[in-house]
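Q: What does the predicted 3D structure of NifB/NifX family molybdenum-iron cluster-binding protein look like?
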Amino acid sequence: MKVAVAKDGTQVSGHFGHCEGFQVYNINDKEVLGSAFVPNPGHRPGFLPVFLADQNVNVIVSGGMGATAQELFNQNKIQVVVGATGSIDEVVQRYINGQLKSTGSVCEEHAHHDSCGE
């Protein structure tokens, strides 16, 4: 299974579309086998869900995400987990342990006024 975490530095990004990139973890039997950084190729409506599907990602984790993006990930059979905060490595471990649940945090517009992912 591949889990992509939208990141800024070592922290989960508040908005997946504007993150610096994605740390993609390869997980098997609740063990991280390795990870690789995939730079964000650019924020264009509808592009990132297809881009990550092409990377064989099964799960996307982010602080916040727009409703349309969540729908597109679902159409690409990628599980969406939003509302995550903190260190990307810790968040992935919480996901593996079944302790990370999506809050359904939706960004309503692109002018977030510092509320996206809160």
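A (community wiki): The structure tokens above were generated from the sequence. Strands lie at 2-8, 11-12, 21-28, 31-39, 59-62, 65-66, 79-82, 106-107. Confidence is low (pLDDT under 50) at residues 108-118.
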